[in-house]
Amino acid sequence: MMMYPLNSPDQGIVQTVRSMLQELLGKKLADAVLVLASNPWSDVPMPTLFTDPDRMEGVDPLAPVAPVSSARQASALTRSPSGKTVVLVLRPCEIRALIELVKLNQCSLENAIIISMDCLGRMENKIFSDEAKTGPGITERFLSSPELQGKITTTCSTCNDFLPENADITLCTLGAEPGHMGFEALTDKGKALLESLGFKKGDDLPKRKQDIAALADKRSLSKKELFDATALQMSTIDGFQTFIGRCLNCYNCRTACPVCYCKECVFLTDVFAHPPELLLERATRRGAVKMPTDTSMFHLTRLSHIGHACVGCGQCSSVCPSDIQVADMFRTVSEKTQAFFNYTPGRDVTEPIPQLVVRNGKRGD
Amino acid sequence: MATRSGLEKWFPEFFEKHKAFTVFDLLVTYISSGRITLDKNLFTMKIAYHDPCNYGRKSEEKFGHGYYEEPRWILSQFVSNWVDLYPAGANGYCCGGGGGTMLTPYKEVRSHYSRKKIEQIKRVNPELIVLPCHSCHGQIKQALAENNMDIPVKYLWEIVAEALIMD
Amino acid sequence: MNIHTVIAGAGISGIRAAFDLAELGHRVVLLDKAPSSGGILSQLDHQFPDNHCGMCTLLPMIDRDKGPQFCLRKGIFHDHVTFIPSAEIVSVKGPAGQLSVVVEKQHTGIDPLKCMACGSCESVCPVSVPDGFNEGYSTRKAVFLPVPHQIPNHRIIDFSVCTRCGECVKACPVSAINLDGEARKLEFNPVNAVILATGSGQYDPAQSDLYGFGVLPNVVTSKGLERIMSSSGPSKGQLFRPSDNKPIKRMAFLQCVGSRNLMENADHCSSVCCMFAVKEAVMACEKSHDDLTVSIFYMDMRTFGRDFQRYKDQAETSHGLRFIRCRVHSVEPCENTDGMKISYVNDKGMYMEETVDLVVLSTGKKTGLTHPDFYQNEGVFALSDTFDFKDIGESLVAADVAAGKAMALGGPPHTPEQRIFDTQRLSKKAMPLLVLCQCGNNLSNDLDLDLIESHLSAMPGAPQILKLEQACGAAGFESIGTALTSSQANRVVIAACNPFLFDHKIKALARDAQLPDGFFKTLDMRSHVTGKTKNEQTQSLLSQIKSTVNSLNLTLPVYREKRTVTPSALVVGGGPAGLSAAFCLASAGIDVDLLDKESQLGGNGIHFSPGPEKNSLDKLLSSVTNHPKIRVHPATCLTRHQGLAGVFTATITTPNAVEQKIPHGAAIVATGGGQAQTLDYCASQHNGILSVFDLAKGLGDKTLNPLDFSKVVMIQCAGTREEPRNYCSRICCTKALLNAIAIKEANPSASIHIFYRDMMSYGESEKIYTRARQAGILFIPFDLHKKPQVAVNNQTIHVTGFDPVLQEDVQLAPDLLVLSTGIVPTDNQIISKIFHINTTQDGFLKEANSKWRPVDSGREGIFVCGLARAPLGFQEAMDEGISAAMRALRILGRPFLETPQVTARVRHSLCSRCQACIPECPYQARYLDEENGKIMVDSVSCQGCGACASLCPNSSIMMGQFEEKGIMDSIEFFLNEACP
Lengths: 365, 167, 980
What we know:
The complex is a heterotrimer of chains A (365), B (167) and C (980).
Chain A: E1 2-6, H1 13-26, E2 32-39, E3 42-50, H2 70-77, E4 86-89, H3 92-103, E5 112-117, H4 125-133, H5 138-144, H6 146-149, H7 154-157, E6 169-172, E7 181-185, H8 188-196, H9 208-233, H10 237-243, H11 252-256, H12 276-286, H13 295-306, H14 315-319, H15 326-341
Helix pairs in contact in A: 2-3, 9-15
Chain B: H1 2-10, H2 14-17, H3 23-33, E1 47-49, H4 54-63, H5 69-78, E2 82-84, H6 107-112, H7 115-124, E3 128-131, H8 134-146, E4 153-155, H9 156-163
Parallel strand pairs in B: 1-2, 1-3, 3-4
Helix pairs in contact in B: 3-5
Chain C: E1 5-8, H1 12-23, E2 28-31, E3 81-84, E4 87-93, E5 99-105, H2 120-124, E6 128-130, E7 139-141, E8 143-144, E9 156-157, H3 167-171, E10 184-191, E11 193-196, E12 219-221, H4 222-229, E13 250-257, H5 273-287, E14 293-298, H6 308-319, E15 322-325, E16 331-333, E17 340-345, E18 351-356, E19 358-363, E20 380-382, H7 392-409, H8 423-427, E21 432-437, H9 449-457, E22 464-468, H10 474-487, E23 491-496, H11 503-513, E24 520-524, H12 534-553, E25 562-564, E26 568-572, H13 576-587, E27 591-595, H14 612-625, E28 630-633, E29 637-644, E30 647-653, E31 659-664, E32 666-669, E33 673-675, E34 689-691, H15 692-701, E35 711-715, H16 732-746, E36 751-756, H17 766-774, E37 778-781, E38 789-793, E39 796-803, E40 808-812, E41 816-819, E42 823-825, H18 829-835, E43 862-864, H19 874-892, E44 896-898, E45 905-906, H20 917-920, E46 926-929, E47 934-937, H21 947-951, E48 957-958, H22 964-978
Parallel strand pairs in C: 1-2, 1-11, 2-3, 11-20, 12-19, 13-14, 13-19, 14-15, 21-22, 21-23, 23-24, 26-27, 26-32, 27-28, 32-43, 34-41, 35-36, 35-41, 36-37
Antiparallel strand pairs in C: 4-5, 5-10, 6-7, 8-9, 16-17, 17-18, 25-44, 29-30, 30-31, 33-42, 38-39, 39-40, 45-48, 46-47
């Protein structure tokens, strides 16, 4: 892990990062770059695929917002070999989700360069948009303002996986002087790239270790509180039903989830297309039944299908029109599921998915 | 057995003029022809029969015949309550007498090798032991004494003789 | 239709032979003297190497809908097989192909057509005797179930203990019992062939007083131990000793009981006892979580099968099994306990005595059996060495050989009948027919069938209802048939009793109505009679009926593929196994392409010296090269192999480097092997050091003169039976013995010493070992820790070996040192990649299952046999070739292959191409069609196991008749019942 600190803060952090990404294309070190960038039609930056460095003035990967998990877009780009080298600028959770998709043969990371960052979290779209309207340089302001940093989503504020794994280069802000940053090379590929761009190796950022530790402690504490509260609420069937009481089966959470990858969800197939007789039978049995039916079933099914792979991106909560904190439920349960299998999603592309491991032996072995 | 062996080896011409047979053959002939008659009520106690190695396995190997059936037939003619030790016949345990070790100074060894026979006898718990070999007779008598077991030991022909009905 | 073959003996060999012929479309009558099928194996639950049962692996895999698709121990239900229990052949007359076979069937007292298997007779029977099925450790009545879990569970009466009190006759609700009956004679005429697969019993140790069997309660036979350890046995699988039900802590196995015993005229080895003793020891240790000390007292551990040595080594290290080389003379009871004393002499010559809780006698085969008088008739084929004990795999190969001979008498394979389905009727909306059987009014106190009828009529999607007094009689089934035709129903639920009882009747109904078998479901009404109130029981039955009707309604007809089979075979390798296979196939009318990489056929056989084996091989070579249906391709290599079972294509390169494509339906790989080389024991450093095979050839060809050798030393297991080459090569010990006897007979003054670890003279070869010892050849055992040392100085060979009897080294200076180096397979790396089949860690081609599918590779349509698969003798290799040919004929003998009803299909719209399913299919039936980017299932290889369906994260597998919606709905129904 090698640090390439930057000692010229004049450009500002956002421009420094932007220039670096432009250079990758300019020096033909890559054929395309997928990165968050603003555009004239949207008040929040969107993942954009660039081939022309001159078009990259709106690029801002450190902006504290992510309207969608870019893992999905990255997967679409690498679904089959294109022969092109693509730079994927992704948050740590997005990388983890991408690794899970690689395990399922949905995409491949050959010929991909992954650049990530110290993730300080994202705000919900509306909050970001409101804050951005109060003045320019929202990203720079966010990086130096603890008050703004407090406005990130619940999921982000209870996440202690904010440093990327499996990336080539990290954009480091934690531990740097205000307005300073560094590039960290996590792989040989990353090192070669940074050196081709002319960056020089240097010392680690001055307070990096302490800042990381402090943030980790804070996040862990918040996480424990949140998980305990969620678990308490879900400890009874009534509690669970209340939690998802307003669910409409709109399936937004499923659409937004980066690891929910089925081509056709079983809930859209005939298995759940109940004939009127069945619905009436159910109503007859119980006297009354809430419609739409199978809302609990949907969440329970999704928990069992992809619980092992939940990377805690929080998109599900962000997109729910009924304000159900789906992410809290998923993360609380997934933590236990993953511990049971000693499995961490996104940690290692060769680590097999627990439900797909077949062993011969006797029960109790 | 030994005699016949020796004769066959060193004096084979003996057999041109004479026949050799065992006491079993003799007794079987005498009893089945009626030449002797036996008192069936004399021996009613529990008798255990012991098969010696020489008349059994050794005889089978050397002369092609082991005397297992004959003594049992003889016993059945006048003894109501006789039993086999376990195992018996060709499988029976050697008494440890070695066909003459009583005459040697190997007292501890001889005594040690009698223990399986003693165990066999204990399991059956007879009131009398009957056998046809002089070496076994001595060995077993000695071993019983060493083990504080008070069971008499007699030869097969001895009890035949005792049961003879004289007229 | 005529019966093709009558098979006597329904143990696994008989069953295998029956299935071999049945799968070719021939009708077979299978008999057993016993009232049940399964033979010895019906009492044994676990086989090594994986300690599973595995018997169902025998079930047909091609056209599996014709046979049973549930546990084979329950019984034999194939369309083409008629099983007759309690029957024996009494006479066979006539020429082969036109035999007249008379069978006598015993009167068992109970009419199977009437019996409802209710068990009332058994509950009133006053007679109680030891139960033979549990080897006497539990009891049974005079009227009893011979094998408890077999179906139909008709009871039989053992007239040898029946007191004729008549209570059972009174108790039977359907008057199925008749105590006075006669045996009947059945005649089958004309029949092509008879196969004798009667096996032999096991030696009864009660006939010897050495072991205390039958006197001491804690002395058991190996079968007795299996029953004690079985969960269906006398102590429900707990390892308790028979006398007092205390747990067993110390166990001793005595090997060679009743075998290898000149005193009992048993100069043979029973071949299987060493391995089953190890298996039983492993099972016992696992059951008691290794809180058990097991000692095995043996003379030679005969681990002569390919994987046996490693299994034994593994067992020894994992479970601490004590292997003690000493034959125990007798078992003595302990003084005051139920334990027993075992005395033996250890390897240092010290006398030892141990106490054990259980003695297990590894009993071998029974002797003194005689063949029936028709044994030698033409057209009567006994399994080779009928009375010998064989490993399961070898028994099945022998069965295949016998079936092959029977088949040859009957002309080409019979075209199996094709099932026709009424697709129009099936394409309509689901219309169920429900048959409610009143069970002769026996259930009127327990179930309210009227209530069920009225409730169901009110149900949406209501079934048509047919009420019958008794469904199980001929009249009942006829009514169902009529109702089916008139109602045009396309799904049927029969609420009656035990479903398995009438499996074949249901199949007949399905066939007549032209509907798939899976669209008929039978429910056991009596399983709802559980002692609750009539209403509760009725409700319980009602919900099962509703759920079954519902799930049947949602079951879809399966898509069926019909694959035309290329009626020719590819045989790779022209050695004894390959030649045998080619000839068997050609004789059955199949075209064969036989390849060999050498220009001369014969494999290792070309090294044979003049003699009976060579004559046999020459005859086979001539038959093959002259056969019009066999095309021989010498000096040719296989470069590519593609396709699926029935439609393969091979690419070969001819000697003039031309590529040729050979389409074929099945392939047999018999690439052979050769003798192993070693550097141990100064192997190549002296002219007087030869391998056992080279010596045999020299003596046979007379290029070596036995009079030249006055001092011979042989060392067995040279460089083998230890890692990395840790397997026994099976034939070297017997060859070494024959070499030694040949030298000694020609040169009686020669002194011969054989250093051995275990003399693997199994089966009848034991007689050769006895002869060798009687001829004055000396045998010195050694183990891996103290191997003999060989040095070559000044042109003399010095051998130093430790003699455990003398407890010191012996020094020998032989003029001939013979090393048994063993056998290695041909390098199979390329061939295994070409065929996508696996090899073992030693490079042998791996069979699908060493017990139950000994010559199948992991892929359907590709078979492996001969030395390529495992070390074998010449006759054994030829037999395996025939066995592989018989397996191939299951495919080649049909014009087309059809998809069975429960087969996996992929719903491509749901499949995410994650490919997790491909490696998990146990039959290698799934593959990625790269051109189309789809995951495909070979419907012929697929066995409908459902592993893929349970694994698929996208629910994209459809398992024909087990669709997700149907199952989810069934679950919902049952949950509704459970939580009203």
